[in-house]
């Protein structure tokens, strides 16, 4: 029981606000956002921790400001979950310099006031299988004093009450975990693959909630889901324990892929290689069977149309790149 209580304090918490549990949600159109200087809610000056005995995660100069959503992408084993565990104190760090909610990282575990401003959802929940969801929700309410009625409705938490945690499906557990992590309006939310396992309806509503209701808060999200990236303010691309790229979605697309993606299916490999050798534009090319995928400037389509009369092509398409292309590359370890 002591372990469960510790995790609650670590993962939950903005300052209690009385009388908000059953308040009707405020329409988004009635909210006035006041422009103010953005505060740094997470700053990683230098972080070093072990992923495996032979691989180390090292990051530096990563920051999340109030109102921003930082999404972390990369292949399995890159160190994304290790980063989350290191930030919340569940993994030993060889070095961790910076600030969390304006304080030294070690202070998060020393002062309850800081923990109340932090919300955490991890992949492997600490709740016991026999714990009743109603008791977990009551404990959260007792510790933090408020729960977001709108989020309660969005995630259909009412239908999960009076059940044992071990009886819930994976998606139902994720809904409960997210409610406990976010319903107290934390200034900083750290979420590890929050939409994995969620039904599309809940994933869509969750993304909208994060994007629209946290103008003065910051969110760090690990993700493998393309739709999650469309609400990102910043993206951190991690592979082999290091940062491959860090910046805005538009900047990363421009630097690593370009504005255009082409997909061309040839009748034979010889025509494919002939076309690839004849490219005059700077393009990144990837081959799978008889399909050539290329990324680069807009004139890669012109290269294709000039070569078309001499090549046998089954099908082709050219579209604008978006963040789903970036995730596709990052998830496969391509840099």
Could you name the CATH homologous superfamily of the largest domain? P-loop containing nucleotide triphosphate hydrolases
In percent terms, what proportion of residues is strand? 25-35%
Largest sheet report:
6 strands, mixed
Shape: elongated
Describe the protein's topology.
Elements (H helix, E strand, L loop, with lengths): L1 H10 L28 E11 L5 E10 L3 E5 L6 H8 L7 E6 L11 H4 L2 E4 L11 H12 L4 H6 L15 H13 L5 E5 L7 H14 L4 E5 L11 E6 L2 E6 L1 H8 L3 E7 L2 H9 L6 E5 L2 E6 L3 H8 L5 E8 L2 H9 L4
Describe the structure.
With 335 residues, the chain is of the alpha/beta class. The protein has two domains: 2-17 and 39-247, P-loop containing nucleotide triphosphate hydrolases (Rossmann fold); 254-331, Malonyl-CoA ACP transacylase, ACP-binding (Alpha-Beta Plaits). It contains eleven helices and 13 strands. The protein has helices at residues 2-11, 80-87, 112-115, 133-144, 149-154, 170-182, 200-213, 249-256, 269-277, 300-307, 323-331, and strands at 40-50, 56-65, 69-73, 95-100, 118-121, 188-192, 218-222, 234-239, 242-247, 260-266, 284-288, 291-296, 313-320. The strands form three sheets. It has a six-stranded mixed sheet with strand order 5-6-7-3-8-9, with helices on both faces. A four-stranded antiparallel sheet has the order 11-12-10-13. Residues 1-36 have low confidence and may be disordered.
